[in-house]
Amino acid sequence: MTSSFAPDSLVLNRKLPLWYQVSQSLRASILGRTPDASLRLPTEEQLAAHYGVSVLTMRQALKELEAEGLISRHRRRGTFIEPGARRGAPRRLLGSIDAVVAQQSGERTTVLGHGPEPVPGDLAEHFPDLAEVVTFRRLRRDGDSGEPTNWAQNAVRPDVAAQVDLADLERWPMTKVLRDAVGVKISRITDTVEARLADPQTAELLQVPLLSPILHYTGVTYDAAGRVIDVARIQYRGDRFSFSVTIDAD
User: Fold this and answer.
1) What percent of the chain has pLDDT above 90?
2) How far apart are CA 250 and CA 239, in angstroms?
3) Confidence of residue 88 (pLDDT cuts 50, 70, 90)
4) Strands 78-81 and 71-74: what pairing?
5) DSSP designation for 17
6) Per residue in 7-20, pLDDT tens?
7) Kind of pairing, strands 213-223 and 228-237?
8) CA atoms within a 13 Å half-sphere pointing along the CA-CB vector of 201
9) Which domains does the chain have, with CATH numbers?
10) What is the pTM of this model?
């Protein structure tokens, strides 16, 4: 039995274009949908009411997703999710939490392991009050081909990590788990992306040659009190990841 498609809720940030925020939230919902979810989206009017925006804003958001190849729109028939939508398409990053969630969604995730360990030396500046963090290791695969795309290590404060459900980590990115399942009030995330060469562990997990180019992402997540609650280190296959950045001049 096919279930209806249900988009996630969204808290709008008035400093960012509304159409962009809506498109990224809907994108995350599309890529993170359950296998039995309907491919038919609600109407423009229903989606606009769900997100609390105008129909014109909703149309602009849908136009963005259509240009990316995630949906198709048919006069009199409605709007449908493309079954073979390409999940590795470039992401447009404007700085919202939902953009981070969308970037990490749409892949099959396996939890490789988790447990406490001493704070790594290169992360000591982020956890000056801690002797240990809880590290979660995950491998992500393309939802269609099953090919490894990236593997992630998240160093999380122990008090927060104790509330993380591993089943949630197999369905959602860590950012979404912390915000929506654990209830952390995230104030900001600082992202850094740099080119590196695959070490033996990364080469084995991602099925690439040793010392082949990869992209190394570091994301530092802060709560409302200014504490670092999570440091994500993600190794992406160089041939499976790209992104573009749009700078708003206003």
Assistant:
1) 47
2) 34
3) very low
4) antiparallel
5) -
6) 776 666 666 788 88
7) antiparallel
8) 9
9) 18-86 (1.10.10.10), 102-245 (3.40.1410.10)
10) 0.61
